[in-house]
Amino acid sequence: MSTTIIFPTIVYKSPGECRRPRDGGLYTYSGAADATELQEKLAAGWYRSQDEAIAAAGARAYPANPRAKPAPAPKRPSKPIDGVNHHEPKSTPPVVAPAPAPSATVVVPALPLPTAQDEDEPDPDEDEIPDDDAEPTRQELIQQARELGLKFGNRTSNEKLRSMIDEALSAPSRKD
What pTM value is reported for the model? Predict the structure, then answer.
């Protein structure tokens, strides 16, 4: 039985850059425009079908592990930059710094020790009375809001807390 070839046609060679889905065989392909070009390619090692090309290549048509990652390149030690990352060889003895040269003695005057009289005197900054015009501190606002039974969180700003307190103080109190 003779086979009629219709031109242009495709010829195959293995291994190549294309992967056959059913078995993972690698192949490449090329076109042949006429019978003369087909005969030249067949003589040069090309085949009429993928199956013939992969079978002729044998084990070379199948990679060892198609999903395997290439081996990582070995790491090279970094070059020292002005002494950073520089490690002395272990065979060299450690370098001992020379002792400092004797210097002139510096005399520091002694500070007077506190006496019992000094401890009894009140610190003027401790009991300082704040101005009446000063804004209340966060702690004062929190204390007043708790006394009024207001609900608030850590994210409530001082301004919002102050307005909540003012509302609670200006609202008429209900006594049941």
Answer: 0.36
Q: How far apart are CA 134 and CA 73, in angstroms?
A: 68
Question: In this structure, is the dihedral angle defined by the CA atoms of residues 130, 134, 136 and 139, taken in order, positive or negative?
Answer: negative
Q: Closest by alpha carbon to 29, among 12, 48, 7?
A: 12
Please answer whether residues 32 and 5 qualify as being in contact, where contact means their C-beta atoms are separated by less than 8 angstroms. Answer: no
Residues 15-47 pLDDT 10s: 888 888 888 888 899 999 998 999 999 999 999
